[in-house]
Design brief:
Length: about 90
């Protein structure tokens, strides 16, 4: 596992740097580790970027396992928000 904690909380420094390198400094990757509602429309561009990145990176960088980050992305986009904002897709 790349990150030091198995929740949506903060990363430790080592995990932050490792994930930063695996994600190639893609803008918005940090949102995978926050409590923000990625379904909110203000994150639409960020979600699109992350979606494309996590779709393409596994074939571009086959030595890295993006499965955990893909699962984290999906969980961040699918979790209930109490009816506030529609899912962005």
């Amino acid at each position: 596992m790349l990150y030091g904690r198995d929740d949506f909380g903060e990363l430790d420094y080592r995990s932050y740097v490792e994930t930063l390198l695996v994600m190639k400094e893609t803008p918005g990757w940090q949102y995978l580790f926050t409590e923000v509602d990625l379904r909110h429309r203000k994150f639409h561009a960020t979600v699109r970027q992350l979606e494309k990145t996590l779709e393409v990176f596994p074939s571009l960088f086959p030595d890295h396992d993006y499965g955990h980050l893909q699962e984290r992305f999906q969980a961040r986009c699918d979790r209930p928000t109490g009816g506030r904002a529609p899912r962005v897709r």
